[in-house]
Design a protein that fits this description.
Layout: E1 10-15, E2 24-30, E3 36-40, E4 43-48, E5 51-55, E6 58-63, E7 66-71
Antiparallel strand pairs: 1-2, 2-7, 3-4, 4-5, 6-7
Length: 73
């Protein structure tokens, strides 16, 4: 991933099934500055450092500059 400032940002996805095109189960993002994470009734909004993302039916966990979003079926 690259931000609008072209900084390197680390992102890792875990697939739902044996092939990555089946969908994403988990997304982990690290290395973003000034990240704002808002979670409300299963909707997760992440913004900052040139990133804007919205996930529905999801849970989010923040830990020491790392954000992990778990996407539920």
């Amino acid at each position: 991933m690259l931000t609008d400032r072209m900084d390197d940002v680390k992102a890792l996805t875990v697939a739902v099934g044996p092939h990555p095109l089946y969908g994403v189960l988990r997304l982990t993002i690290a290395g973003l500055d000034a990240l704002k994470v808002v979670s409300d009734d299963g909707t997760v909004n992440i913004s900052g450092s040139g990133l804007n993302a919205q996930f529905t039916n999801a849970n989010v966990y923040e830990n020491d500059g790392q954000v992990t979003v778990y996407l539920n079926k």
